[in-house]
């Protein structure tokens, strides 16, 4: 007997729906909210309104793309948190309504756990236990993953996320939002000849707010001396900032691998699209004998396929919730 799950993700600014059958992704549809580009960041109120508009077409699109009918859906998985509460409410309410109308079981999913399990949407899957560095606009975490639903955060940011460090730097340089991909592209033409300090944070935790401040002071000082400094050195500034963000991430990941003795190393989240981070991980992996895993971009950024994959493993364990479930802004894995 096959098991078909409708999955819904609405924790931040992407509205996404997927159909997952027996642990394989049949479809994965996402509506991005371009409105936030106008403001240089995600505006929560605008995000929840856009989810409200996007959710029905996205769910219908996912069902159509999977080539199934609604009656074939056996369960509904949804992101309960962590995330923006106004955004989560839209997805959670939709999932509850859909499940109620068809008398289907509901599966709550932790968004951070789902980022990790996105690896199981791919043909090449990491072996347990593995380490996963999840890096996006909202998260920076290193986890030990012992089994599908058994994972532990062993390091995380104490302030900004890695993606925020890219995006906030972009704002200082007058780049569009989100700036991560733009900095990545510009950095390819530049030299990392400006040095920014690496924060001295104990253990496996990260900090990016000190870096942000040092970039700001550096730019202010240089612009005071030469008003054209940014325009004349843009590619080099991008290369320098990117090199530092990547080295902060890889140093902690290497430390985690050394401390745990684990050599299965995975990357997840939107920032894993970064070319320097990807090549840096692969180089480190070759040097240290790691097996490295990076999901394709569609499964790195926020998506419902990862929610459906997590939902599948929770279904197998009989982990369901009732209609009284409500979203949560904070939720540890
Ligand atoms: O996972 P994601 O789509 O959404 C969440 O934040 O959950 O990640 C978005 C983040 C943004 O901060 C964006 O600037 C960053 O991922 N990003 C990148 C690249 N592509 C996306 N950062 C650096 N280099 C990239 N190529
Ligand atoms: Zn995310």
Describe this structure in words.
With 333 residues, this protein is α/β, with parallel strands linked by helices. 44% of the residues lie in helices and 19% in strands. The protein is built from 10 helices and 10 strands. A hairpin with a 2-residue loop joins strand 7 and strand 8 (150-156). It is globular.
What is the secondary structure topology, with strand pairs?
Blueprint: E1 4-9, E2 14-21, E3 24-32, H1 44-66, E4 75-81, H2 85-102, E5 106-110, H3 111-117, E6 130-135, E7 140-147, E8 150-156, H4 162-172, H5 180-187, H6 209-225, H7 229-260, E9 264-268, H8 275-288, E10 291-293, H9 297-300, H10 305-316
Parallel strand pairs: 1-4, 4-5, 6-9, 9-10
Antiparallel strand pairs: 1-2, 2-3, 6-7, 7-8
Brief digest:
By secondary structure, this protein is an alpha/beta fold. It is built from ten helices and ten strands. It is globular and about 65 Å long.
Task: Characterize the largest beta sheet: strand count, sense, and whether it forms a barrel.
Answer: 5 strands, mixed
Q: Which percent bin holds the helix content?
A: 40-55%
Kindly provide the name of the CATH class of the largest domain: Alpha Beta
What percent strand?
Answer: 15-25%
**CATH architecture field of the largest domain:** 2-Layer Sandwich
Rounded mean pLDDT is 96
- Strands of the widest sheet, in order across it, are 3-2-1-4-5
Count up the helices. 10
Measure the end-to-end span: 30 Å
Bound molecules: 5'-O-[(R)-(carboxyoxy)(hydroxy)phosphoryl]adenosine, zinc ion
User: Tell me, what's the shape?
Assistant: globular
**H/E series:** EEEHEHEHEEEHHHHEHEHH
CATH homologous superfamily (4th level) name of the largest domain: ATPase, nucleotide binding domain
CATH fold-type name of the largest domain: Nucleotidyltransferase, domain 5
Rounded radius of gyration (Å) = 20 Å
**Structural class, from secondary structure content?**
alpha/beta
How many domains would you count in the coordinates? 2
In total, how many beta strands? 10
């Amino acid at each position: 007997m096959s098991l078909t799950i409708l999955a819904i993700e609405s924790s931040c600014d992407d509205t996404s729906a997927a159909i997952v059958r027996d642990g394989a992704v049949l479809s994965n549809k996402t509506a991005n909210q371009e409105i936030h580009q106008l403001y240089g960041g995600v505006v929560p109120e605008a995000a929840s309104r856009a989810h409200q508009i996007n959710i029905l077409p996205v769910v219908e699109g996912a069902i159509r793309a999977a080539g199934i009918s609604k009656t074939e859906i056996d369960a509904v998985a949804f992101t309960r948190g962590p995330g923006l509460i106004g955004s989560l409410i839209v997805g959670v309410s939709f999932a509850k309504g859909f499940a109620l109308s068809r008398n289907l079981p509901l599966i709550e999913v932790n968004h951070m756990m789902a980022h990790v399990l996105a690896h199981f949407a791919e043909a090449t899957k990491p072996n347990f236990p593995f380490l996963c560095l999840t890096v996006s606009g909202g998260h920076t975490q290193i986890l030990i993953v012992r089994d599908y639903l058994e994972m532990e955060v062993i390091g995380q940011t104490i302030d900004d996320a890695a993606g925020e460090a890219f995006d906030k730097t972009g704002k200082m340089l007058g780049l569009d939002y989100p700036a991560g991909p733009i900095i990545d592209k510009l950095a390819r033409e530049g030299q990392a000849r400006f040095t920014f300090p690496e924060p001295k944070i104990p253990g496996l935790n990260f900090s990016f707010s000190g870096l942000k401040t040092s970039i700001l002071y550096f730019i202010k000082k240089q612009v005071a001396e030469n008003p054209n400094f940014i325009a004349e050195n843009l590619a080099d500034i991008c290369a320098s900032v990117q090199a530092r963000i990547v080295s902060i991430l890889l140093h902690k990941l290497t430390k985690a691998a050394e401390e745990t003795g684990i050599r299965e190393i995975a990357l997840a989240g939107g920032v894993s699209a970064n070319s320097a981070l990807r090549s840096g991980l692969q180089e480190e992996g070759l040097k240290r004998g790691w097996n490295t895993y990076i999901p394709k971009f569609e499964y790195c950024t926020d998506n419902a396929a990862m929610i459906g994959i997590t939902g599948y493993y929770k279904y197998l364990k009989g982990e369901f919730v009732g209609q009284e479930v409500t979203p949560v802004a904070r939720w540890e894995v």
